[in-house]
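## retry 2 of 3
previous attempt timed out at serialization; input unchanged, resubmitting
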Amino acid sequence: MKECLFIALIFLNEFLFAQTITTIKPVFPILPGAYQTEAYLPLLKGKRVGVFANQTSAIGNTHLVDSLQHLGITITKVFAPEHGFRGTADAGETVGSYTDRATGIQVVSLYGKKYQPNALDLFDVDVMLFDIQDVGVRFYTFISSLQGFLESAIQYNKPLVLLDRPNPNGFYVDGPVLEKEFTSFVGKQPVPVVYGMTMGEYAKMLLGEKWLDWKYVRKEDKQSTSLGQLLGFEEKHTNFKLTVIPCKHYTHSSKYVLPIKPSPNLPDMASIYWYPSTCFFEGTTLSEGRGTDHPFCIFGHPSFPDTLYSFVPSAKLGAREPKFKDKTCYGWNVFATNNVVLHKLNNTLNLHYLLKAYQLYPSKDSFFISTIAGGTQEFFFNKLAGNNLLMQQIKEGKSEALIRKSWQPKLAAFMAIRKKYLLYKDFR
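## retry succeeded, writing output
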């Protein structure tokens, strides 16, 4: 009875919210998988649950962890991705494991020192649960975290329940496809920058295409792995069970507006829509807008003409040391030209500002940031692009049209693979 009342209150809240949008016709709001409690609670009851979650893991205004505890589910571990369980850490910041004050549950960081649970982490876990809001961009690291979580579930023979969420950039596919030699945590698989899949669909693709590292064991984790084997954990893949709880009322034509910002530097939908295009500036000497009110919508450099838009990056939550902190930069503010974010950027990845910035930059040899001179894989820009061709095309002054044309053969091949794993009606 308590469970039914709790669920009813959630849906009443969603219905009332929908009615505030319009009273002209019935509204059927998109509901993430976490809302379908009747579908996954039976899989969790009486089990010890390890939850991969952050601040976006919510049912209405209530965090998933709180909701599950209220419904009598035993949660023994919380696993956290980049930016941490509460979503406040800087990009790339190492976050250690700790006990969450609000819940008293141990939080294990899966970003920084390690990227997937080991035997000791899963010793008191019967079922692994994954619920994270992604943004559908290859170099946004949550899909890499998903891969590590899947690999551990298989390695330690734990069933995994994935609560699917809509992809806010799921209405198109575009960008260069990653090449194997440029694999990193900001890109593990041969997918384009914008891949047009939800986490549930992506997980099914990882399994179906056999892209997982089936016998993955971290070198620094050999001791705990041996202990896990002594405790009865067996590396059996054949019995692995993945259960995806789908969204309701979602298709790949949907323009889903996130109710919670997915990370500190994606504060609004404009940033989320521009992110696939302007995150490339992270691999250059330019500011990508961290330390401003509109990251990835504001970008530039101190050496650019002062007739351009001026801004001063400063220390902010999630960007304590942004590029050119407290220095005046000149560049562009595309947030100001919103117009419903240029009709969702016309469903394409935009290279206009990247090409323009390279043309304007006075010292071309230092435009792209490199840790080791001469090694193309050591350019962070190439890790973002997934190849070294895009950098070369920019240096050669190739047009956006020619660059985009070079992506098409691999994009077509990916689209054929992607189609096999879609859970929702496609955009075409």
